[in-house]
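Reopening this ticket.

The earlier resolution said the output was attached, but the attachment link was broken on my side. Pasting everything inline this time so it's all in one place.
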Amino acid sequence: MAVGMKRKRLDEVADIPIPLSQKLAKATPNSAVPKRSVSVPEDMEPQLQRIAASDRTAFEKKVWNLLCQIPRGHISTYGLLAAHLGSSPRAVGNALRRNPFAPEVPCHRVVATNKTLGGFKGKWPKDGEGITIDEKRRLLHGEGVKIDEKGRVLGTPWASFV
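Inline output:
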């Protein structure tokens, strides 16, 4: 391209006017209306709408939206969610602890990096036991997730976040 020449943006090609609604949609990518994504199961749409309508922090909403991407019968880790968000596992755990939509927004599908169950409902178990961990174990088992005799989840953590 010659010096001093400007490139045309794609939306300026052939001088086609762009409707205001499209311009606004481009200007506000984080609008309150959740965008349908192939990676989010259809049954999670109501949950995405509940999250978007909530008055919680933007970070909490991002974490909870990621939870909706983890398929039933799979798990992910605090570390993988944190890496995707550019955050820390502790911050992710704090957002999960504040999830008012559980278990429909499935925070029980997130485990520690070593694949132990980790915490649940803001509580950490003593010696791997406790009513909240039993509940997490029961929810995962009900989805077909296998846990070995040492309390570690079997299989590869899901990491295909978009």
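Reporter confirms the inline version is readable. The two ends are 34 Å apart (CA to CA). Residues 21 and 27 are 10 Å apart (CA to CA).
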